[in-house]
Structure formats: structure tokens, C-alpha cells
Amino acid sequence: MTSVPVVDILGYGLDESNEGEVTTDALQTIGDDMCRALRDIGFCYIRNHGIPQSLIDQVNTVSRTFFEKSVEYKTKYQRKPTTGIHGWMPRGSEGLNPERPPDNKEAFNITPLDEAEQLPDVSGFDVAVKDLREACHVLSLRILDLMSVGLHLEDRHFFRKCHKSIAERNSTTTLRVLYYPALSSDAEMKANQIRCGEHSDFGSLTLLFQDDVGGLEVRTTEGEYISASPIPGTILINIGDMMQRWTSDKLLATKHRVLIPEDEIKKRKSRQSIAFFVVPDNDVMIQSLDKSAKYEPISSLQFLQQRLASSY
Questions:
Q1: Which CATH class is domain 6-309?
Q2: Is there a contact between 211 and 230 (Cβ–Cβ < 8 Å)?
Q3: Which of 118, 203, 206, 219 is most exposed by smallest CB count within 10 Å?
């Protein structure tokens, strides 16, 4: 495969207000196309998803305002590894490929909040990220329906039912805003360091919004990396390790990375992206849907904790 497929979900994106009236037969072709892409390369772009570009732009604007503030300011919101996922992660605090130096990026993770967790007091930050999180929440459930249909499961809402706590404390589903600082000189980078090291995602599904700087690459089944440049009007989606395990490897959790642009102009620009990492409810058992017992059952929370421990 030389490119990431594009799947049109018109009729089941957020513009469709009566999802309950859409028949399974009407979704079959879309579901088949989506699962074919997730089987062959683990990624696809989706168009006609229904999330306004203006909302995506607003989240990028408020998050950039946060990331451009002083380290002293941002430290007030730093993630506390012993208590959870929520919060700011400084440049170099995460290494997704242990064979490389830590990633050259910052991030802010937004999870369902409790009293101990804060959002930055940047004007408009809380409203924008909460609105986008809600839109991603609803859209991700519809994508999970399409995957259930494409896998020919008896219940098209099977995966949806395993993610019913996305907006609650019983789920580690996370909206992450990412910032890759501009590089004023090559000396800022360590040997073999890139913006984001090769990795596969951990959960069941990821929705990714990119700016126009680019740099994301996806590994094909032949082991070659191909570009996954942003396509206007689309969201890039992929599955994570839990979904590959769940489907007994029918769908692929593909490794991907973010390189330093070769273009000097883009290299001197910062890069932004937004990821919505969808994870099954903490107590959901991930076990082979085809009854093959290819993998031992494990809870969603236990699996995620094991994967996170290797990245920090």
C-alpha cells in the first residue's frame, strides 16, 4: 500500500442527527471500507465527519497560547504520574520509542476532571477543549459502530457499549493537545532524536487532527514508512493495541512517527496536532472476539497501565 485510504462516512457523521434511524444495511459499505483500511494499514482518513474546522482551529489557538507561556507558568499544570494522566507534559518527558532519545514535543492531556485537576486559565481554553472533547466523544461512538458493522459482529453497538464511560472517571479516554517546538538550529536535537518516536497507540481508537506542517509517517505491512500528510476536511483515524488484541490481529495497530521536516521553512515552524485517544471502560475485559483465545483476557485499565509504564 502506497497511501492511506480515505473513507467517506456521510450519513453517519455528526451531521446525521437521527443515528438511530440509520439501518445496519445502510452502514455496511462504509463499515467494510473502514475495516479494510484498518486491516491493511491500520489507518484511514474520514471525511464528512461533521466536526467544524472552526472548533479545531480554536483549540489549536488556545493550546498554542498555553504552550508559548513560560515553563514556570506551565509547571503549575504539570501531570503528576502517581495520580493519573491529566496535565502538562514538558518537552522530553515522554519517549515512545525507547531506542531513541525522548520525544521533542510538549503535550497537555485532558481527562474527565475531578477537584484535583485543573485546566489552564487561558481565555477560552476550557470551553474550546470541552466542546471538542464532546464532539469527539459522539463521533468516536459512531466510528466504533461502523467498525462493529465492518467486522460483522451480531450487535452493531458492541464496541459502543464497551465505551459507555468515555466522559466519566471510569475511563482513561484522553483528549491530548500536542506542540512540537520550532527548531532554530539543528544543534537543538540530540543524535537520533525525532519529534515523536515510532510507536503504536495503546487503546481502541484514535482520532487525529493535524496542522499543515506535516511530518507524520505510517508503517505499511511491508515495513516501509509512508507519509500521512493532512488532507483538508478529514480526520485521520487509527486503532491501538487493545483493538488489535480484541480482534485477534484482524485489525492492525500500526506503528507511526513524526519526523523533523527536511524543508527548512517547515523545520523552523512549530507543529501542532490534537489526538483523541479512545479507551474502553476500565473494567472491560479485552478478550478475543472470535473465541480463538489468541491472547489472554486482560482488563482495559491493566493493559493501559502496563503500556504507560514503558513510556515514561
A1: mainly beta
A2: yes
A3: 118
